[in-house]
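Can't paste images in this forum, so I'm doing it all in text. The chain is below; anyone willing to post the predicted C-alpha coordinates underneath?
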Amino acid sequence: MTYEAQNRQEKTISVELTLNEALALTGVRFPQNHQLEVEVMQKIKRSLEDQFIQNNNRKTIQ
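Text version of the structure:
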Protein backbone atom coordinates (compact mmCIF):
# COMPACT_ATOMS: atom_id res chain seq x y z
CA MET A 1 0.00 0.00 0.00
CA THR A 2 1.43 3.37 -0.94
CA TYR A 3 1.68 6.34 1.37
CA GLU A 4 -1.04 8.16 -0.59
CA ALA A 5 -3.43 5.23 -0.17
CA GLN A 6 -2.74 5.16 3.57
CA ASN A 7 -3.52 8.87 3.86
CA ARG A 8 -6.92 8.41 2.23
CA GLN A 9 -8.02 5.81 4.75
CA GLU A 10 -10.04 6.94 7.75
CA LYS A 11 -8.01 6.97 10.94
CA THR A 12 -9.64 5.22 13.86
CA ILE A 13 -9.40 5.49 17.62
CA SER A 14 -10.77 3.23 20.30
CA VAL A 15 -12.49 4.43 23.44
CA GLU A 16 -13.87 2.00 25.99
CA LEU A 17 -17.27 3.14 27.28
CA THR A 18 -19.64 1.75 29.84
CA LEU A 19 -23.17 0.96 28.72
CA ASN A 20 -24.50 4.11 30.39
CA GLU A 21 -21.78 6.23 28.75
CA ALA A 22 -22.70 4.87 25.32
CA LEU A 23 -26.40 5.48 26.01
CA ALA A 24 -25.64 9.06 27.06
CA LEU A 25 -23.96 9.66 23.70
CA THR A 26 -27.05 8.44 21.85
CA GLY A 27 -29.16 11.08 23.56
CA VAL A 28 -30.58 9.11 26.48
CA ARG A 29 -30.89 11.49 29.43
CA PHE A 30 -29.92 10.62 32.97
CA PRO A 31 -31.73 13.25 35.10
CA GLN A 32 -29.96 12.17 38.26
CA ASN A 33 -26.52 12.18 36.60
CA HIS A 34 -26.13 14.90 33.96
CA GLN A 35 -22.38 14.81 34.60
CA LEU A 36 -22.22 11.40 32.87
CA GLU A 37 -22.62 12.90 29.40
CA VAL A 38 -20.04 15.58 30.16
CA GLU A 39 -17.53 13.01 31.43
CA VAL A 40 -17.92 10.73 28.42
CA MET A 41 -17.34 13.64 26.04
CA GLN A 42 -14.20 14.53 27.99
CA LYS A 43 -13.05 10.90 27.76
CA ILE A 44 -13.40 10.98 23.97
CA LYS A 45 -11.61 14.33 23.71
CA ARG A 46 -8.71 13.02 25.83
CA SER A 47 -8.44 9.98 23.56
CA LEU A 48 -8.35 12.22 20.49
CA GLU A 49 -5.70 14.42 22.07
CA ASP A 50 -3.60 11.39 23.02
CA GLN A 51 -3.81 10.07 19.45
CA PHE A 52 -2.89 13.47 18.02
CA ILE A 53 0.09 13.84 20.38
CA GLN A 54 1.33 10.32 19.58
CA ASN A 55 1.14 10.97 15.84
CA ASN A 56 3.01 14.27 16.19
CA ASN A 57 5.73 12.62 18.28
CA ARG A 58 6.20 9.90 15.69
CA LYS A 59 6.72 12.47 12.96
CA THR A 60 9.35 14.41 14.93
CA ILE A 61 11.26 11.30 16.05
CA GLN A 62 11.58 9.82 12.57
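Residues 32-61 form one domain. The mean pLDDT is 81.
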